[in-house]
């Protein structure tokens, strides 16, 4: 018989059922994104259906909709996923120990590799196609180019705060550096005039762009 004066132990919450639910969901999401990236590059936005994405990912169409809602959202998430993979956030964390030029070179090489990849060129051509509506272009811009610009601007602002750069408008400076990195090589690729640049061309393009940028924004000695 229980002593009524003894303290009553608090009831334990029911144990959560174990199972592969969450990892399985994450695996399906990754499979859907991989399928979407591949199909959007191969067939363009309008040529891809949620049915074809589901079939390639090995999931039901209902599962695709439950993860992403609609095709526009899935497209922008595919763009964002590609950008994060090729330009991870860690690239834009200011390195207190490393030289500024080295870190800008790392960012520059990653950015140049991304924009000159066959996948990126294909998606950008889709965005330039007359049948692509402005809303989709805006969603693409926010998920891809705008994310990169904002991350680079924040990085530059941190270096300005350390006195390593002298920049009044870091957002504009970030756009300037990305434009330098694209250069004529990227324009030629978009027009189909040349294939992916050789490594030596990429090294020369990134190095010249970073050096030009640093000369433009190096701190000036006080007058």
UniProtKB/TrEMBL annotation:
Residues 1-21 have a biased composition (Low complexity). InterPro entries: Homeodomain-like_sf, HTH-type_TetR-like_transc_reg, HTH_TetR, Tet_transcr_reg_TetR-rel_C_sf, TetR_C_Proteobacteria. Residues 49-68 bind DNA. Residues 1-26 are annotated as: Disordered. Residues 26-86 form the HTH tetR-type domain. Keywords: DNA-binding. PANTHER family: HTH-TYPE TRANSCRIPTIONAL DUAL REGULATOR CECR, HTH-TYPE TRANSCRIPTIONAL REGULATOR RUTR. This is TetR/AcrR family transcriptional regulator. It comes from Stenotrophomonas nematodicola.
């Amino acid at each position: 018989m229980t002593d009524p004066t003894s303290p009553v132990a608090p009831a334990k919450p029911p144990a959560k059922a174990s199972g592969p639910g969450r990892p399985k969901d994450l695996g399906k999401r990754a499979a859907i994104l991989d399928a979407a990236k591949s199909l959007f590059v191969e067939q363009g936005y309008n040529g891809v259906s949620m049915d074809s994405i589901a079939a390639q990912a090995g999931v039901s169409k209902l599962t695709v909709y439950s993860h992403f809602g609609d095709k526009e959202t899935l497209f922008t998430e595919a763009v964002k996923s590609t950008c994060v993979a090729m330009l991870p956030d860690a690239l834009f964390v200011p390195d207190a120990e490393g030289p500024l030029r080295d870190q800008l070179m790392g960012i520059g090489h990653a950015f140049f590799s991304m924009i000159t990849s066959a996948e990126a060129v294909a998606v950008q051509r889709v965005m330039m196609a007359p049948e692509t509506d402005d809303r989709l272009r805006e969603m693409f811009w926010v998920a891809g180019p705008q994310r990169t610009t904002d991350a680079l601007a924040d990085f530059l602002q941190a270096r300005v705060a350390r006195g390593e750069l002298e920049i009044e408008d870091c957002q504009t400076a970030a756009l300037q550096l990305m434009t330098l990195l694209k250069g004529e090589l990227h324009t030629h690729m978009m027009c189909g005039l040349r294939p992916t640049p050789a490594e030596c061309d990429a090294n020369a393009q990134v190095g010249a762009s970073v050096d030009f940028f640093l000369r433009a924004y190096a701190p000036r000695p006080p007058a």
